[in-house]
Amino acid sequence: MIVCIAEKPSVGRDIAKVLGAAEKHEGYYEGNGYQVTWALGHLLCLKEPHDYLDSWKKWSLDVLPMVPPRFGIKLIDDAGTKKQFNIVKQLVANAREVINCGDAGQEGELIQRWILQYAKVKCPVKRLWISSLTEEAIRDGFRHLTDQSRYDNLYMAGLSRACGDWLLGINATRLYTLKYGRERQVLSIGRVQTPTLALIVQRDKEISEFRPEPYWVLQTKYRDVLFTAVQGKFTDRKEGERVLSSFAGRPFVITDVSKKQGSEPPRQLYDLTALQIDCNKKYSLSAETTLNTIQSLYEKRLTTYPRVDTRYLSDDIYPQCADILDNVIRQSAGGIGGRVGETLQHPLPKSKRVFDTSKVTDHHAIIPTGIKPSGLNQTEERVYDLIVRSFVSVFMPDCRYSTTTVTGKAGETAFKVTGKEILAPGWRILYQDYREDEEDAADQDREKEEKVLPSFVRNESGPHQPVLQSKMTTPPKPYTEASLLQAMETAGRFVEDEELKAAMKENGIGRPSSRASIIETLFKRNYIKRNRKNISATPIGRQLIGLIQYELLKSCELTGIWEKKLRDMERGKYDPRRFIEELKGQLLAIVSSVKADNSQRFVDSFPQTDSKGEAHGKRTAGTKPSSSRRAKKAASSGKMKVTHGQACPLCRQGQVIKGKYSYFCSRHNEGCKFKSPL
Fold first, then answer.
1. Which superfamily does 272-393 belong to?
2. Which residue of 47, 243, 495, 630 lies most exposed, with the fewest beta carbons within 10 A?
3. How many CB atoms lie within 10 A of CB 669?
4. pLDDT tens digits, residue range 163-203?
């Protein structure tokens, strides 16, 4: 009997249907010489500290760092998990061959290898490697089964990642909690979550420390069109007024009119991060919601494998595209189908922006499978629609436009205005009913450029209305989930080392499939908070980052180094043993540094305020409020004497500002409720 092990029951059902294993049993299907069973995601995990040594059960600085001589695995402590594993174990014990049908990726390989290892499988193991769950893809995958050993490097990379995260996460979390935590507050540290939190804290700092500065822009209105002086902004108002007065009463003269035609190619296909960014911009979906939704669409066989980091298709996909395209257009008749019309080219164009095998590793970009959708909820419909439009658009003509640049002079001062006219919308016709995020500066700039100008003639002249516009510089924008995902994906720009920066172009921080859970973890641990679409750090999050003196632990560089080494490991270019040994050395340095810190610093458990501005938090019964807590109570009641410029006694992050009638905190716009009458 051949035993196939899928990662989830739904995938197992699809595979069983294709193989003709129609007889249903508890935990598996059987028939036609196959038994198809499944995991429930992770059935096993790495052992916990106390599984190695009893002395590691108690949290103590004396036992750090904890480094197991050899990592072990154990069943997850859940009745359903144990029951399903025992079913799998019984089936593989009598198998003549096992087929690993796990998700085709690093984590999927790790899940399956742990099951096979713990079940002590002795028979040959083959690997099914597919990017979609359509009947055709499954049949093709079974025709091209390979020996599991081909993916040993992938498994070692996944195992090294898991062991590395265990070593760093558990040791650093216990270390910082014991050294700086108070009142049983756990300070969680992670290879990806801590640098991500540091990005948010740094952005918050840039915003809070930003001081707006005035500047002036010289503009003039001629024939109801606003021209702007080409010399840019003035930081000195008097200088702007001097230039303005230099052409007072003189006419405006058109000096040149130029037109240039250009084209804009379709956007590239989606990888997971790009899809999450668009879903957040257009529908305010969190990264985790988008990931769960696209995973659901994949399991319903409507889209291809979702956890990908490439925006290209391999060349062998090209012959399938015409049929997929015909199906999705026919299914959306009156929608996308009604817009495409005769604009699609036949045969379909094969652009290097779409098809490039050299830029595809395990999986290609996310595309529809062509199967007709039914029974989708609103979120699934929206995400599926984005993927379909993306796929259809790459086979449509470029958007053609004409750019008009008009220059003029008033006296010796030059002005310019630019307009853009769409000649043929091409692929953009698919997105005419889509409004981009109103807060996306790039889209606002595009709208300004795309205005159509009236006809101007060189040397024409006439009266105009000049004005010196007063403006203020603006701070950086807070992160949204979309911009935070972009920052994680392009984290190499935060790294100074040029070699590592080049390597991180491929990796960023975190994997595409893990970034959503990292962001959600920061929310759950109360390190960051949402204010509508904006994300900012909580006081606890800011204090935690401030405590970490080992810069590598909170920098994008650390996780960038890891990702590069793990990618090299997948390619057989890096030794897993070296990876763990180097990490042990880093751990020793971190533990020694923190243990030697005698600063008596700690994370305040009570930096937040409720809706009434009152400090809140846990306090052990029978203990007296600390002096700092009494100070906060006085601050929130407005009974404390304060002076302009001192640290805010309530949030401890802002500064006291003297207003017309009362003192208030410089962070009042961020939620601090401190207020005290003059």
1. Topoisomerase I, domain 4 (1.10.290.10)
2. 630
3. 11
4. 999 999 999 999 999 999 887 788 999 989 999 999 999 99
**DSSP SS3 for 182:** coil
- In percent, how much of the chain has pLDDT > 70? 85
Please give the pLDDT value at position 527: 95
Is the pLDDT at 231 greater than 60? The verdict is yes
Residue 476 preceded by cis peptide, ω within 30:
no
Query: What digits encode the pLDDT tens for the residues 81-102?
Result: 999 999 999 999 999 999 999 9
Query: So what's the pLDDT on residue 183?
Result: 73
| CA gap 260, 234 in Å, rounded | 30
Q: Is residue 212 scored above 80 in pLDDT?
A: yes
Helices and strands (H, E) in the chain, number of each type: 21, 22
User: If DSSP states are collapsed to H, E and C, what string results for 360-374?
Assistant: CCCCCCECECCCCCC
- Kindly report which listed range (185-199, 209-223, 623-637) carries the lowest average pLDDT score: 623-637
| Per-residue pLDDT, 357 | 85
| pLDDT over 90 (residue 452) | no
What digits encode the pLDDT tens for the residues 137-157? 899 999 999 999 999 999 999
Beta bridge partners of 253: 409, 461
What is the DSSP pairing of strand 2-6 with strand 97-101? parallel
Instruction: Tell whether the torsion through CA atoms of 364, 367, 369 and 370 is positive or negative.
Output: negative
CATH topology of domain 214-265+400-472: Topoisomerase I; domain 3 (2.70.20)
Q: Which residues are catalytic?
A: 305
Q: Strand 461-462 relative to strand 252-264: parallel, antiparallel, unpaired?
A: antiparallel
Predicted local distance difference test score (pLDDT) of residue 499: 63
Which residue is associated with the tokens 């051949």? 2
In the chain, what is the straight-line distance between the N-terminal and C-terminal CA atoms, in Å?
A: 85
For β-strands 2-6 and 34-38, DSSP reports them as parallel
User: Using an 8 Å Cβ cutoff, are 318 and 367 in contact?
Assistant: no
Q: Distance between CA atoms of 521 and 527, rounded to whole angstroms?
A: 9
The CA-atom distances, in angstroms, between 464 and each of 238, 248, 430, 453 are 21, 10, 40, 16
Q: At what angle do helices 481-489 and 193-208 cross, to 10 degrees?
A: 120
Compute the distance between CA of residue 176 and CA of residue 161 in angstroms, rounded to an integer.
Answer: 22
Q: For the domain with range 2-144, which CATH number is right: 3.30.559.30, 3.30.420.40, 3.40.50.80, 3.40.50.140? A: 3.40.50.140
Q: Which residues pair with 609 in a beta bridge?
A: 615
CATH of 175-208+478-595, one of 3.50.50.60, 1.25.40.20, 1.10.460.10, 3.30.2000.10: 1.10.460.10
Q: Could you give the CA distance from residue 591 to residue 597 in angstroms, rounded to a whole number? A: 10
For residues 357-369, give the mean pLDDT.
86
Q: Is 194 helix (H, G, I), strand (E, B) or coil?
A: helix
Q: Which amino acid is at 433?
A: D
Tell me the percentage of the chain whose pLDDT exceeds 90: 65
- CA dist., res. 29 & res. 11, Å (int): 12
Helix, strand or coil, per DSSP, at residue 81: helix
> Among 200-214, 466-480, 493-507, whose mean pLDDT is lowest?
493-507
Rounded CA-CA distance 245/625 in Å is 66
219: helix, coil or strand? Answer: strand
